[in-house]
Design brief:
Radius of gyration of chain A: 34 Å
Low-confidence stretches of chain A: 12-17
Largest sheet of chain A: 7 strands, antiparallel
Number of domains of chain A: 3
Mean pLDDT of chain B: 83
CATH topology of the largest domain in chain B: Rossmann fold
Shape of chain A: elongated
Strand content of chain A: 35-45%
Largest sheet of chain B: 8 strands, mixed
CATH superfamily of the largest domain in chain A: ABC-type transport auxiliary lipoprotein component
Number of strands of chain B: 17
Order of helices and strands of chain A: HEEHEHHEEEHHHEEEEEEEEEHEEEE
CATH superfamily of the largest domain in chain B: ABC-type transport auxiliary lipoprotein component
CATH topology of the largest domain in chain A: Rossmann fold
Distance between the termini of chain B: 85 Å
Structural class of chain B: alpha+beta
Oligomer: heterodimer
Largest interface: A-B, 62 and 64 residues
Number of strands of chain A: 19
CATH architecture of the largest domain in chain A: 3-Layer(aba) Sandwich
Shape of chain B: elongated
Helix content of chain B: 10-25%
Structural class of chain A: alpha+beta
Strand content of chain B: 25-35%
Strand order of the largest sheet of chain A: 7-8-11-10-9-12-13
CATH architecture of the largest domain in chain B: 3-Layer(aba) Sandwich
Mean pLDDT of chain A: 82
């Protein structure tokens, strides 16, 4: 009986081990460490597929964020670092107040399928150093998984099931997620970072929109320097450029949008603020193309401004931009020729006061704020 | 014998009783900023309870690796990770927890005050603390490990709810319950396995894997490829596209014009390398998309490709690099 218990326990011991991790924590980091970190490019042997290296990197980034670290935006790291050792890292410390640097050196990614069993393993070293280069922690880890009938000899159905699961795409992803989780779990606990802290505190002070030329507006946001600013428009995010410290600008069309656009400011550590544009305050352009038609009433000509089809949403949206505008009529006797002003009207139509000679017309809309549209020529009859 | 067969059937059914349901009431391609609040473990009446902690068997070093965190913490991390694969902009858990602890939503030991968080108005949490558009609540309804001598069963049940801060609407709700068993129902190959496998079935690794699978299936509706319309309709296409930069040079004070021809009603944009992202293109006439990039004096671009993208209402995206060459701005 005792022998049976002993053998059972020994068997369990042999079968249990899935992850072997050796962690060394420096005394100064034993109680915790600064929370603002950047993950350096991964060092990996050339025989590991780049897609797998990229997946493991994403998994480590997600685990670091989930564990309470404020992690620098990966785009900034990729932009600055020219190699995995990243000699340019001091700029990350000075420009973005990064306090610690995490580096992952992948040693191997093994997938071994024995038909009736499998053994997969990821092996690597995750280390944390401070901005002076002192090592705070290092974790040497091999995360493995085994299955199939060979390693599940006690469970027939489970063995077959696990063998089938191993052939699916998700099996590498699951192992990589476990590797990331086990590695990051061994790192020192990060100190809590507050959104109001220097590196994370961001604010949009002002948004200015000025017309450039029809139909473009220049948009500039005054906000916290060294952040990333976007215009969120029609469910897209387009980047504003920092033309001066704290001044983010771009030139865009702002008519024809389905949702209210907003400026989003994102700190290098991922938190963000948004402010919507006050569309009512934007100077509106009136765009007459497709809205003007010419008709004859006996010997008189009439110009009409409107939509032929009242159900045409695009046309109606464009017409609404002309609300409150007045229209100036120009006429030229022939083309090419000089157009002269002949009339001005508000409302939707104008009728020539004298019998019409054969003439060519153009209409220009002038908004309440004085913005002039491009001239529109009605289609010839 | 009959009793044994009935018992086995019940155990087998217990291991095969996966239940999932979800309801989606928003477009998951919208770049919403979402905060995943700390999860709570709830009882059958839906009242928040303290975490049960680990089962005693979990502390036996030979059998299992210690999970290291409560079921609610573990599931929240799994949800956070899975949401990162969707189109949502998910706030970092560390920032969310930190803001809660700094603004009176945590106890002195920094554990979140779940009752206070769940009772608060999401608008207050997002507007004053977190800067988000929606919050996700998670309720762990089951985290059970049952040992029945010749069988052990792990069960996890979770409810998630995403609420818009703008109008209080429930944007997405999903529930899941799933089980994993070891022992008699998985085909033991010997009498010793009949004893050993149920004990091995209490390994934290098994319930952890089960939880991750549960969360993946629950959040599948947020991914474009999981939506049923994805297979029923044609993906968006770009039939033709071009830009007007002569010799690939974009002069300052003159725009780069990009035209694309594709199905009507798409959300179109173009990018120039990584420097200029997602300039919107408007459908000026049916199927004709038009966009312009106006360089600013400080813009510097050196031989970068112009890439047009169109997205349909289901979030499927097609991109194409323009064939008339890269462009430069200097």
């Amino acid at each position: 009986m005792l022998r049976a218990v002993f053998l059972t326990l020994l068997l369990l011991l042999c079968l249990a081990a899935c992850s072997s991790a050796k962690a060394k924590i420096a005394p100064q980091a034993a109680q915790g460490t600064a929370g603002q970190i950047a993950l350096m490019p991964i060092e990996a042997p050339a025989d590991i597929a780049r897609e797998r290296v990229a997946y493991i990197r994403e998994a480590i980034l997600a685990e670091l964020r989930n564990s309470g670290y404020a992690v620098l935006d990966d785009q900034l790291v990729q932009k600055l670092c020219t190699s995995s050792s990243c000699p340019e890292r001091t700029r990350l410390a000075t420009d973005y107040l990064v306090e610690n640097f995490a580096t992952l050196k992948l040693k191997s990614v093994d997938r071994n399928n024995f038909l009736a069993g499998y053994y997969n393993a990821i092996s690597g070293n995750l280390s944390l150093v401070d901005s002076s280069g002192h090592e705070l922690a290092t974790v040497d880890l091999t995360e493995s998984e085994k299955g199939g009938l060979i390693f599940n000899s006690g469970q027939l159905f489970q063995g077959i099931r696990s063998q089938a699961q191993n052939s699916a795409q998700e099996s590498f992803a699951n192992l990589a997620d476990k590797f990331a989780r086990s590695a990051v779990a061994k790192l020192p606990r990060p100190a809590a970072v507050k959104i109001g802290d220097d590196a994370l505190g961001i604010d949009i002070q002002k948004i200015e929109v000025t017309p450039v030329e029809i139909p473009l507006y220049r948009l500039c946001a005054k906000a916290t320097p060294r952040s990333m600013a976007y215009l969120v428009i029609n469910k897209l995010k387009t980047n504003l450029r920092e033309t001066a410290p704290g001044n983010y600008c771009g030139i865009y069309r702002l008519d024809g949008v389905s949702d209210t656009p907003a400026v989003e400011l994102r700190s290098p550590f991922g938190n963000s603020v948004r402010r919507e544009l006050e569309m009512k305050l934007l100077p509106r352009y009136c765009r007459l193309d497709g809205l003007v038609s010419l008709s004859s009433e006996g010997k008189f000509s009439s110009l009409l401004v409107g939509c032929k089809d009242s159900n045409d949403q695009r046309c109606q949206a464009r017409l609404s931009g002309c609300n409150g505008s007045k229209f100036i009529v120009y006429r030229a006797p022939q083309i090419p020729g000089v157009f002269s002003k002949v009339a001005e009207f508000s409302g939707s139509g104008w009728r020539e006061a004298f019998p019409a000679e054969k003439a060519n017309y153009q209409i220009v809309a002038v908004s309440g704020s004085g913005l002039r549209s491009q001239p529109a020529t009605p289609p010839t009859q | 014998m009959k009793l044994l067969l009935v018992f086995l059937s019940m155990l087998w059914l217990a291991g095969c009783s996966a239940k999932y349901s979800s309801k989606l009431d928003f477009n998951p391609t919208e770049p919403l900023r979402v905060a995943v609040l700390p999860f709570a473990q709830v009882d059958k009446q839906g009242q928040i309870v303290e975490s049960e902690g680990d089962l005693g068997i979990d502390r036996v070093g030979l059998v299992s690796q210690h999970l290291g965190e409560s079921p609610a913490e573990f599931l929240r991390k799994a949800v956070q990770k899975e949401l990162g694969k969707s189109g949502l902009d998910v706030l970092s858990a560390g920032l969310v927890d930190s803001e809660f602890s700094h603004h009176g939503y945590a106890f002195p030991d920094l554990k979140p005050d779940l009752k206070k968080i769940f009772a608060s108005n999401p608008k207050d949490l997002c507007s004053h603390l977190l800067n988000c558009d929606a919050v996700i609540y998670g309720r762990v309804k089951k985290w059970d490990r049952g040992y029945y001598a010749i069988e052990s069963v792990n069960t996890v049940a979770l409810d998630l709810q995403m609420i818009s801060v703008k109008d209080g609407r429930v944007l997405f709700t999903t529930s899941g319950e799933d089980s994993e068993s070891r022992g008699l129902t998985k085909g033991p190959t010997g009498f010793s396995d009949l004893v050993i496998e149920p004990v091995r079935g209490l390994d934290s690794e098994i319930i952890a894997d089960l939880s991750r699978r549960l969360v993946t299936k629950m959040l599948a509706p947020l991914k474009v490829e999981s939506r049923p319309e994805y297979l029923k309709s044609q993906a968006p296409a770009i039939w033709a596209a071009a830009h007007d930069a002569r010799d690939g040079r974009v002069a300052l004070k003159k725009p780069l014009t990009v035209l694309a021809f594709g199905p009507s009603g798409m959300n179109a944009s173009f990018s120039i390398g990584k420097a200029i992202q997602n300039i919107p293109m408007l459908e000026e006439q049916e199927m004709h998309y038009f966009g312009q990039y106006y360089p600013l004096p400080g813009d510097r671009i050196d031989r970068q490709p112009v890439i047009v993208s169109v997205a349909d209402k289901y979030g499927r995206v097609t991109s194409q690099e323009l064939g008339n060459g890269p462009v430069s701005v200097n």
